Every structure is written in structure tokens, then in C-alpha cells.
Amino acid sequence: MYHVSKSYLPGTFALRDVTLEVHKGEFVFLTGPSGAGKTTLLKLLFAAEQPSEGQIVLRGRNIARLRDSAIPGLRRRIGVVFQDFKLLTRRSVEDNVAIALEVLGRHPREIRRRTFGLLKQVGLQHRRHHLPLSLSGGEQQRIALARALAGEPELLLADEPTGNLDPDLTLEIMDLIAHASARGTTVIVATHDHSLVERYGRRTLHLEGGRVKEDAAAAGPRR
Ligand SMILES: Nc1ncnc2c1ncn2[C@@H]1O[C@H](COP(=O)(O)OP(=O)(O)O)[C@@H](O)[C@H]1O
Ligand SMILES: [Mg+2]
Questions:
Q1: What CA–CA distance (Å, rounded) separates 19 from 36?
Q2: 2, 89, 109, 144: which one has the fewest Cβ atoms less than 10 Å from its Cβ?
Q3: pLDDT digits (tens, 9 = 90+) for 158-190
């Protein structure tokens, strides 16, 4: 993204003149205190918000001024775990994951197999027939991650994906994300959990007051 600013209200900036490049296959942590602009940055990449200024180039296209009709195509290649999980409350846990694959036109047999596999990986296979709202916050977060990873997206955007999880689950979920990264998915994880950042030793973009304060290269994985 080039010289991107985002202002929700006149005279205030959620992001100010942010220029950064993330390469295909990279794994990047986005850190910074509450209000720094982390969620805003992720939303811009998903075209959930438009920048007030600047360009956001994904695969050679400026998505800052995308036609509405082009947004679904963009989003099909992006997996997201936002903090308001946007789960379908009237559909089962299993359906929430399966629908992401139906949208991509996958074969029913593959959908069943992959959905089961993903729910197993996030430790929710025993809950697959439940409704999302009958599960805990951490469990809902894991459904959202399973759904986001279902289509093996080119880009995964995760906003505090371990925010509601205890330490053991946090590591399992992060390992799942690292696994997706190892298979070629570009990953951006917003977090204020510095122990995560230290443990995984990836490139870290530190935001403060809407600006990039530091862009620290990967320290080398410590697994
Ligand atoms: N929809 C919105 N309307 C008005 N202000 C917003 C909105 N979303 C975020 N902001 C403001 O933008 C700034 C950055 O917020 P956010 O991107 O959520 O930061 P972070 O995720 O790092 O906590 C904050 O000052 C926040 O209050
Ligand atoms: Mg946030």
C-alpha cells in the first residue's frame, strides 16, 4: 500500500500516510496498542473500508477504488478472521465452514472431507452439529479460522485470532496459521500479544497512532 490514509471522522486519522509492501508468501505480524489502526489496515485489505487517500495494490490491481461488482471476486481469495466473527448464527458449526467451500464451487465429497478435517484441526469436530452461538468465544474464533482457511486462500487476514484463547489453544491456532503460511498463503496477523511475536519471530510491523513506527525483519523462527 502506498501513502494510505484513512479518516473515519473529519480531522481524525485511523491511518496516516502508511506505505508498506508485503510479498507473496510472507508472514507478517501487525502490532501496536489499541486504537493504533491495526483493524483498519486489515479492513482496507479486504475492501471492507475504503482508504481516504492512497493506493492499495493487490496482485497488481488498485483495490482502493474497486467497483462493487469486483469485491466478491477479491474476497474469494482472502480468508479473514475478524473480531466480530460474522458466523451464520442459524447454521451449524459444520455448515459455517462448508459454505465457504460451496461458494468456491467445490465438489460435495471434497467439502465434507475438508470440513471435517478442518474442524478436527481446530478441535471442534465434536461440536460440528451445534449452533455457533451455543459455543464459547474462543470456540467461535476457531470456527472463524477454520472457515477462513477452508479455501486455501492466497491471503489470510487475522485480527487478534488468539484473543479469546488460553495459551495451549493459542499455540495450536498459531501453528495452524503457520502451516497455512508454509503452504504458500500470505499471512497478516494483528495482535497485541508480544509473546506470540517473540515465539514466531516473523516480520513485525508496529503501528502507533496510525503510522508505521517500526518494520522489523523476521528474527528467524524459534519453534
Ligand atoms: N467505524 C469507525 N468509526 C469511527 N472511528 C473509527 C472506526 N473504526 C475505528 N475507528 C477509530 O480509528 C482508530 C483506529 O482503530 P482500529 O483500526 O480499530 O485500531 P486497532 O485495531 O489497532 O485497535 C481508533 O481511533 C478508532 O477509534
Ligand atoms: Mg483492532
A1: 15
A2: 109
A3: 999 988 888 888 988 899 999 999 999 999 999
Residue with cell 475478524: 82
**Which ligand has the shortest distance to the CA of 40?**
1
CB-CB contact of 157 with 188 (8 Å): yes
The C-alpha cell of 89 is what? 448464527
pTM here?
Answer: 0.93
Quick check: CB of 9 below 6 Å from ligand 1? Answer: yes
Written as nine digits, the cell of 168 is 495451549
Alpha-carbon distance of 201 to 14, in angstroms, equals 27
Q: Ligand 1 pocket test: which of 40, 43, 159, 192 has the largest number of ligand atoms within 8 Å of its C-beta? A: 40
Contact (CB, 8 A) for 103 and 76:
yes
Question: Regarding the domain delimited by 1-77+154-223, which CATH topology (the fold level of the hierarchy) does it fall under?
Answer: Rossmann fold (3.40.50)
How far is the centre of ligand 1, averaged over its atoms, from the C-alpha of 148 (Å)?
A: 23
Helix (H) or strand (E) holding 214: strand 211-216
